[in-house]
Amino acid sequence: MPKLSTGNHFGGRMVFDAKGALFIALGENNQRATAQDLDKLQGKLVRLTGQGEIPPDNPFVHQAGARPEIWSYGIRNPQGLAINPWSGALWLHEHGPRGGDEINIPEKGKNYGWPLATWGINYSGLKVPEAKGEIVEGDGATGLLLEGFSGDQRNGFLCQRRFCAVAAQTVYRRAKR
């Protein structure tokens, strides 16, 4: 785990899946760029065995310059991590900047966009400097999250009491207000 002594967005939620793998959600420590940097653990979901070892099938085990613990990345400030009791799917909730909370179903090796893709803005009211606009390259796949919701089950942006944006295939799309 990264040794952090200052800042915020620590994350630290943990859950075991049905196979005994330990998932740990780590915040980016308010250092936005680290969420996209594969040689750092900040802004990542890591996966270990129940004995604390790195599983050989983790997505970045054989990638030079990447931390082998990483399962997925592009995460801002994880606040919830749970296993869906019906499907066994891993669900991750993260606080976004103002107006940008997310619910993700993290998948192996996928990038969940932060800070390049976000619905929110900084609490100051300014745009997130690294955000690439309304469409940026990323990972995602559409699917059914809740009955009657036709957005993306793997990367749904939340806005107040409704879902505001969805991702489609390999493109993050920001919904029009």
UniProtKB/TrEMBL annotation:
Residues 2-131 form the Glucose/Sorbosone dehydrogenase domain. GO terms for molecular function: oxidoreductase activity. Keywords: Oxidoreductase. Pfam families: GSDH. It comes from the Bacteria. The keyword Oxidoreductase applies. Its EC number is 1.1.5.-. InterPro entries: 6-blade_b-propeller_TolB-like, Glc/Sorbosone_DH, Quinoprot_gluc/sorb_DH_b-prop. It is an enzyme of class 1 (oxidoreductase). Coiled coil: none annotated. This is Oxidoreductase. It comes from Salmonella enterica subsp. arizonae. The lineage of its organism: Bacteria, Pseudomonadati, Pseudomonadota, Gammaproteobacteria, Enterobacterales. The gene is yliI_2.
